[in-house]
């Protein structure tokens, strides 16, 4: 034996009598190749803050994992083919009906494969919960300002995941080739055809010929099971790496600073909670799938372009695009040269991505206003950023109007109104409601800020009524603890931007561009007197508390 | 660093800059000792019952173990249901109605097995694992100025060694080659589909095509079309077993109605029909759903997809909704044998509009 081997064995020999336990030996083996001890040193006891709103991102993550697991199972049985077959399976009502292999295999999964229906239902429910989760998670990040530096890139990654989730949902919804999914594909075809100049070419290339052809489902299939999930998986990993790298934000509170993170260590507490939460989410989705049928493709039969049912509705998350289309009047122009511009579809087709971009770009807009280049690790309370909060709520109301318009026929039936009336209400609301909501939300936020200030300065209402010697009744106010005082005053307050003086100290005129002037205006709206309530100062506090003592 | 705003590195210790716009940041700042709002620091840890009372801790342990045991039982129940319950058994379960027994049993047992693992783990973490909050320090992300200077110097050295800036010819041709090479990929996409040509303008209808009732698959006679009803039809020679049936029916599907001739407002439309029988494309001109909800009193055809409403008494004019033009009408007549037949193809392309439609 050479000396080299001897030294290599030395630590083991010296560690004590006998060998190290098997687990440790495996870890040693891996460490020699992957450096896992250094990795674990940095991460095993990494601190994660705990708050219910941070669970929303986890819901998305777990729904994504569930979708992949159940999706892989479905691919084992699903046949992505539009070849026509005559059905002879165990679902009686469809006996002898001509249908695509895609539809027939979906029926087989539902009626022939034991547990296949359950997996299909889990998959569809998980998809819905995934998108709801992403939406709520995005709103959580938005309303707490968690998108601020250094997290802007992660915001963009997240937004891409949102868009990809929508597209993946759409392609998945189209696969079974039942009547509803066919209507969805037809919608897409109409939208593509409306594109000026290249529309018909695009349509032929996407569908491999005229609608419906036999290519669209195999093509959607590969996008739905490989391309889109692959990109999403990569983005999810990048998203998570950035979360670990930036460390999660936390809410203001005693001991919680912009320079630290307070919470529980990854191992064991966070691991147990997060791991456990995965099983909770999976369990709940499974129970929903067991009891509540979703997308019963067998009800309406296979897709035929000449057949339809009323109440054809897309999954909720695309309902707002449906609503945009329903609200739009049917403007169609034939321009000189004999070409058709179909604004009835083109306008919704442009408004749809614009609505998404508005929310995606907001963080960059806010940063342009504040010109703040510091890192922010304290998640804000929505009330402390009234303009942002109002903007977000207005955006949600905008989205909801479109969603409601997407269900105008359902609502018409439910409330016995004419579709015409509902459409007009939606059209007007689309422009008016966000403005009203913006205004109202800002007022509510300012009111809450005032309440916080009251609380800090005068204490909390205790509910105890006291009679003063001279007969007056007052409610006793309990002073807040030091922890509460700190928490309620810890937030940042910007000063509104100001235009530089007209001339500088040498008498030279300062040139201010239009854009800068606009920025100053917007900044005043955000941080001027109408935009926030100045938080109480230590002097105010002392004056009041000491004042009480003298009386 | 020419940007005067870019001042993170000046005060990296606490990530707080001396930016003039925002007021001072409340957290991480050293506050004067008498500041009533100063951060009092993490509150002391309060013990839970389980931390001080071993009996309470034992109870938690038993709860967690019970949850894990229920999960095991549920998995066994899952396997048992899979084996025992026939796939086509429909059961009535309140309040869900008549549902598949197997689906219900599998979902419930699997859901329970999963949920109990989760509930057990979370309960364990909350009651038995330490709940003492811990603190990690954050470190500024931006690199120290020395690091940045080093990287820039390295980069400059590399660029210089490559002679990228100096050898303009190499640079330009490289950009050219890289710009061109993706073209091959674009060209490869050409065979995704055929060129549109005039495919969208033509349907299976031609002069003399009989009009086949979709329900009976028999050619229609004028007597078959009664006032107030809507008959769905297609051209003869179209067989649902044909491989291109769906493509053809997507353009050729029609609906026939019979109106009192005096009710028809559009003379041209009346002329294209036969004794008040009018034949319209049923493919909505919005995005192509069949617009077949017929209101017999008003002669309106409504499309269920986005509620475009067409007035069949007035050349299928759009009355309401997002459709941009009327449903094309098919000219029909009666042949010598007394059957309805087409006088030709649609004059306008049926279905949703497109750029070249005109
Ligand atoms: C597939 C979809 C997504 C998954 C799986 C996912 C997952 C997660 C998880 C597990 C977290 C940490 C827990 C939390 O803060 O909730 C997180 C944080 C974050 N997510 Fe997402 N997310 C997704 C979509 C989005 C979207 C749509 C956005 C915004 C457009 C977004 C932006 C962020 C940001 C900025 C953080 C950091 C939050 C902080 O540190 O406070 N994510 N994400
Ligand atoms: S397809 Fe008929 S209204 Fe949209």
UniProtKB/TrEMBL annotation, chain A:
Cofactor: heme
GO biological process: respiratory electron transport chain
UniProt entry tagged with the keyword S-adenosyl-L-methionine: no
Enzyme Commission number: 7.1.1.8
Stretch list, region Disordered: 1-21
Gene3D superfamilies: Cytochrome Bc1 Complex, Chain C
Membrane topology (UniProt): Multi-pass membrane protein
Keywords: Cell membrane, Electron transport, Heme, Iron, Membrane, Metal-binding, Respiratory chain, Translocase, Transmembrane, Transmembrane helix, Transport
Segment forming the signal sequence: none
Name by which UniProt lists this protein: Cytochrome bc1 complex cytochrome b subunit
SUPFAM superfamilies: a domain/subunit of cytochrome bc1 complex (Ubiquinol-cytochrome c reductase) (SSF81648), Transmembrane di-heme cytochromes (SSF81342)
Species name: Streptomyces harbinensis
Subcellular location: Cell membrane
Cellular component, GO, one term: plasma membrane
PROSITE patterns recorded: CYTB_NTER
Top-level division of the source organism's lineage: Bacteria
Catalytic activity of the protein: a quinol + 2 Fe(III)-[cytochrome c](out) = a quinone + 2 Fe(II)-[cytochrome c](out) + 2 H(+)(out)
InterPro entries documented for this protein: Cyt_b/b6_C_sf, Cyt_b/b6_N, Cytb/b6-like_sf, Di-haem_cyt_TM
Record-annotated membrane-spanning stretches: 54-79, 122-143, 155-175, 220-245, 277-303, 343-365, 385-405, 417-441
Cytochrome b/b6 N-terminal region profile domain boundaries: 26-252
Any one GO molecular-function label of the UniProt entry: metal ion binding
UniProtKB/TrEMBL annotation, chain B:
Localization per Swiss-Prot or TrEMBL: Cell membrane
UniProt keyword NAD present: no
UniProtKB keywords: 2Fe-2S, Cell membrane, Disulfide bond, Electron transport, Iron, Iron-sulfur, Membrane, Metal-binding, Oxidoreductase, Respiratory chain, Transmembrane, Transmembrane helix, Transport
InterPro entries assigned to the protein according to its UniProt record, in alphabetical order: QcrA_N (IPR045603), Rieske_2Fe-2S (IPR017941), Rieske_2Fe-2S_sf (IPR036922), Rieske_Fe-S_prot (IPR014349)
Limits of the Rieske domain: 251-341
Record-linked Pfam families: QcrA_N, Rieske
Membrane spanning stretches: 64-85, 105-125, 169-189
Keyword Chloroplast in record: no
Main location: membrane
CC terms in the record's Gene Ontology section: plasma membrane
CDD domains, A to Z: Rieske
Subunit details: The cytochrome bc1 complex is composed of a cytochrome b (QcrB), the Rieske iron-sulfur protein (QcrA) and a diheme cytochrome c (QcrC) subunit.
Function: Iron-sulfur subunit of the cytochrome bc1 complex, an essential component of the respiratory electron transport chain required for ATP synthesis. The bc1 complex catalyzes the oxidation of menaquinol and the reduction of cytochrome c in the respiratory chain. The bc1 complex operates through a Q-cycle mechanism that couples electron transfer to generation of the proton gradient that drives ATP synthesis.
Protein name as annotated: Cytochrome bc1 complex Rieske iron-sulfur subunit
Organism: Streptomyces harbinensis
